[in-house]
Design a protein that fits this description.
Strand content: 15-25%
Number of domains: 1
CATH topology: Rossmann fold
Number of helices: 8
Radius of gyration: 19 Å
Shape: globular
CATH class: Alpha Beta
Length: 374
C-alpha cells in the first residue's frame, strides 16, 4: 500500500489560486515522465494522460427507450472524431440544453472542444465508458472529463437519469437506486448491440472485446459502484464524491475521489467513501482533495448560475469547525480527474501498463491525501 499525506498550509487562499505551483508542476512532470516516454502493451507510445489525447472530439445526442421499464433515456455521446474537424468550432454550451432554455448558458465560461455530430475517427472501434450524473445534475455536467476521455480514444455515453435531473426531480430515492444502475446497463447493452448492427448509426463504434468503464459524481458515484457490483463487464470505475455498494463479486479496479469540505454529503458521507474503499478487493486508489467541495468535481462553478457556491465554488465554511474556507480552483481539480481517469481506464481497459506509474503517484501533493493499492 502507498499512502502519502499533505498537511494543510497556513494560507488557504494560496492553495486555491487557479495557477499551478512550481512544486505541483514539477511533481506532475516527474510522475508522468515514464508514461510519456515509454510504450504501451500494444507497442504504441502511451499518450500523456494529463494532456488531451491524440484524437479530435465529437459529440452527438440520442434518445433511447427502455421498453421493459417504460423509460426514456436522453443520452449524450462523446467520441474520437475524424481529423477533418480538428479546427472546427466546438458546440456551444447552449446547444446541450433544450432550445427554449439555451439562455441558461449565456454567462457560462465552460471550456469546450467537442464538435457536434462530427464523423467518428476511422481507426475504431473504441472502448466504452459510461458516466452517471449527480442527483439533480445533468448528463453533460462533466464535459471536461468526457471530452478528455474521448480525446484518448473512448466512446463515452452519459444519460439523463429520468426523475433525477436538473429539470426533473420526480423520482423517489428508493426507485432511483434501482433505476439509475439499470439505466447505465441498458446503455452498455444498447451500444454493444449497435456496434454489430449493419447500417446502424453507431455501427463499428465500440470494441466489445474489451471490458467497460464507469464513472460518476455524487449519486452517480453510487450508481457507478452499483453497476460495477452487478455487471462483470465493468473492469474499471472512478466514482467521485460518494460511496456505494460493493458486492461479493466486485472485481473492478476502482479510483475513489472525495472532497474534504464536501457540504452536500458531509463528514459522514466522506467516511462512507473511505469505508467503501476499505471494502474494495483492489486494485484500489483513493484521492482526498483538501479544500475542495462537492461541486469541484463538475463544471458547476463555470455555469454562471451560482450552482455550487459555498460547496466547491468561491468560499464556504469548514465542516469541522465552521471556519472560513476558500475552495481550491475547480480547474485544478479537473486536471486530477482527467489525468487519473485517462490513466485508470488506459491501464485496466486498454492494458497500458505504464499508466500504473501515474495511478500510484500523488500528482498534486499540496492538496491531495493519496492512497494506492494497485
Amino acid at each position: 500500500m502507498l499512502r502519502t499525506t499533505s498537511p494543510r498550509t497556513d494560507s488557504s487562499s494560496e492553495r486555491a489560486r487557479a495557477g499551478r505551483s512550481p512544486v505541483w508542476a514539477l511533481t506532475l512532470a516527474l510522475g508522468l515522465l515514464a508514461a510519456c516516454s515509454s510504450s504501451s502493451g500494444s507497442g504504441d507510445d502511451a499518450p500523456d494522460p494529463a494532456s488531451p489525447g491524440p484524437h479530435s472530439v465529437g459529440v452527438t445526442r440520442i434518445e433511447l427507450f427502455d421498453e421493459s421499464r417504460d423509460r426514456v433515456l436522453l443520452t449524450e455521446v462523446w467520441y474520437p472524431a475524424d481529423e477533418s474537424v480538428r479546427d472546427d468550432p466546438p458546440a456551444p454550451a447552449g446547444s446541450y440544453l433544450p432550445d427554449d432554455l439555451a439562455f441558461l448558458a449565456d454567462n457560462a465560461t465552460i471550456p469546450l472542444v467537442a464538435v457536434r455530430d462530427a464523423p467518428i475517427a476511422d481507426n475504431g472501434p473504441f472502448p466504452l465508458v459510461a458516466f452517471s450524473h449527480g442527483s439533480g445534475g445533468i448528463r453533460f455536467q462533466n464535459t471536461f472529463q468526457m471530452e478528455h476521455l474521448a480525446s484518448h480514444g473512448y466512446v463515452v455515453v452519459a444519460p439523463d437519469h429520468a426523475g433525477n435531473t436538473f429539470f426533473d426531480s420526480s423520482g423517489s430515492p428508493n426507485g432511483l437506486e434501482v433505476d439509475r444502475p439499470l439505466d447505465v446497463r441498458f446503455l452498455l447493452d444498447a451500444f454493444s448491440d449497435f456496434t454489430d448492427d449493419p447500417g446502424n448509426r453507431f455501427e463499428g463504434w465500440v470494441d466489445t472485446s474489451l471490458g467497460f468503464g464507469v464513472t460518476g459524481h455524487s449519486f452517480g458515484a453510487f450508481t457507478s459502484l452499483a453497476v460495477a457490483s452487478q455487471d462483470p463487464r465493468i473492469v474499471a470505475a472512478l466514482p467521485m464524491a460518494l460511496g456505494g455498494p460493493v458486492s461479493s463479486s466486485y472485481d473492478a479496479a476502482t479510483f475513489l475521489m472525495l472532497a474534504t469540505e464536501d457540504k452536500t454529503i458531509g463528514l459522514e458521507g466522506n467516511q462512507g467513501v473511505r469505508a467503501t474503499y476499505a471494502l474494495l478487493p483492489g486494485p484500489r486508489f483513493l484521492a482526498e482533495l483538501i479544500d475542495a467541495g462537492h461541486y469541484s468535481f463538475s463544471f458547476a462553478c463555470q455555469t454562471g448560475l451560482g450552482i455550487g457556491d459555498g460547496d466547491g465554488c468561491k468560499t464556504g465554511t469548514r465542516l469541522e469547525d465552521g471556519s472560513p474556507v476558500t475552495f481550491i480552483s475547480d480547474l485544478r481539480v479537473w486536471t486530477l480527474v482527467d489525468t487519473y481517469s485517462a490513466a485508470l481506464f488506459g491501464r485496466y481497459i486498454k492494458g497500458i501498463e505504464e499508466y500504473e506509474d501515474v495511478l500510484t503517484t500523488n500528482l498534486d501533493p499540496e492538496i491531495t491525501l493519496f492512497t494506492a493499492e494497485p
